[in-house]
């Protein structure tokens, strides 16, 4: 008897999260993966995306495509971050609905929550306060994606779910020296300092902000888990007007502790200094992951183990990395 496979499109399959989802779905006998490179499909073209969906007979979509970056990139390119992300999610979610795709998972970001939200941040703190100014355009685009999914569910009975990850890192991250997130930026900086025998590495900010970090393999596992929850289990832990679920470890650390752990993993022996003239961003970002825990999923990769895995990947791929 031939096993019936579901056709699953992973948008953004070459990115950090998308590639991790693809790696895990490839192990499944019941999945026929559908992917398209940026050259094959322009996700910012409504006509191209709609034509793609019209020919593919897709059963599920993982919307992992996004324009992402750290504080510097968000501050420098705010128009790109809101414009590109709004276009991609609107095109994909709209076309999925028009062409009969019943199940979709949208990947958001913990920056959707107010800058001074109570910690740990619960799903119902969304839209209860002002956003962090440095990434407000990106956050608004991600909030719009959540509301697109909620609205198609309400009006058309679709099953479009959203997961909000904490700060992610891992293989296929962006290691650009200026436009990357904190972990790849620090891994690269400490590695180059070790190679150059530098006496000191400067880290942006005071080192006091608290951050939570999730390895991308855990994120992929959680994404697939939430996508495949039965309707009753999922509905029990979400509300009609609150369809997103936080994904994280439930544990945070200071940026100073992170930098010291990165130095240990890389083998850097010099001084770690903090440049207080640079912005800290949000004082603390820790997600309340009690909903996902109640649904039966927990992170399994420790920060130090995840950093070692990511540094190994960096060493193996640094010749191909941007910047």
Topology:
Blueprint: E1 6-11, H1 16-25, E2 31-34, H2 46-56, E3 60-63, H3 71-76, H4 78-98, E4 103-107, H5 136-156, E5 159-165, E6 167-169, H6 182-196, E7 200-204, E8 210-211, E9 213-215, H7 216-227, H8 231-236, E10 244-247, E11 253-254, H9 255-266, E12 271-275, E13 284-285, H10 290-294, H11 303-317
Parallel strand pairs: 1-2, 1-3, 3-4, 4-5, 5-10, 6-9, 7-12, 8-13
Antiparallel strand pairs: 8-11
Helix pairs in contact: 1-7, 2-4, 4-5, 6-9, 6-11, 9-11
Structure description:
The record marks 109, 111 as: Important for catalytic activity. Substrate binds at residues 189, 204, 211, 280. This protein is an alpha/beta fold. It has a domain at 6-172 and 212-250 and 286-301: 3-Layer(aba) Sandwich (Rossmann fold), CATH 3.40.50.720. Helix content is 41%, strand content 16%. It contains eleven helices and 13 strands. The chain has helices at 16-25, 46-56, 71-76, 78-98, 136-156, 182-196, 216-227, 231-236, 255-266, 290-294, 303-317, and strands at residues 6-11, 31-34, 60-63, 103-107, 159-165, 167-169, 200-204, 210-211, 213-215, 244-247, 253-254, 271-275, 284-285. A six-stranded parallel β-sheet has the order 2-1-3-4-5-10, sandwiched between helices. Helix 6 packs across helix 9 (255-266) and helix 9 packs across helix 11 (303-317). The longest helix is centred in the first third of the chain and has 21 residues, at 78-98.
